[in-house]
Amino acid sequence: MEFTTTEQGMVVLLEPGDEVLESLATVRDAADVTGGFFTGIGAVDRATLGHYDTDTEEYTEETFEGQFEVTAFSGNVGPDKIHAHIQLAKRDFSTIGGHCSGARVSGTFEILLVPSGTTLEHELDERTGLDVFDLSE
To answer: Name one Pfam family in it (predicted).
Structure first.
């Protein structure tokens, strides 16, 4: 993994075998980013996807293995959390996607991390059971 800092944020290049979320956490910490948003594309051979059921307030997760093009990867970072969503294209051009709790790079993966200018810490929202931004100062 390598990254460089620009006026707009950090440009991140991941290599085969890199874990996407762990690498993003490394960049966040090294660049001292306390809040930001990211987008990316690439290829992975393993991804763990989640779906949140608002009725039961529980995630179900499933790990997928194979050759996938990452057609969308986005989310936010804070000092306490990385929240990512991912869409994967299969060889037959069908797609799967959801909350991303893990992914391993198979070819390359390119990410742009843009600092938000404010700290994005999370707190539990009792109504939904989800960790959401705490924007109260």
So the answer is: PCC
Query: pLDDT, tens digit, for every residue of 91-119?
Result: 999 999 999 999 999 999 999 999 999 99
CATH number of the domain bearing residue 77? 3.30.1330.80
Domain count, the chain: 1
- Asked whether 55 and 128 are in contact (CB, 8 A), the reply is no
| Tokens read off for 95 | 């797609």
The DSSP code sequence of 50-115 is: EEEETTTTEEEEEEEEEEEEEEEEEEEE-SS-EEEEEEEE-TTS-EEEEEEEEEEEEEEEEEEEEE
Distances (CA, A) of 41 to 25, 72, 85, 129: 17, 6, 12, 30
Look up the domain containing 67 and give its range.
Answer: 2-133
The pTM of this model reads 0.92
Looking up tokens 């608002």 gives 54
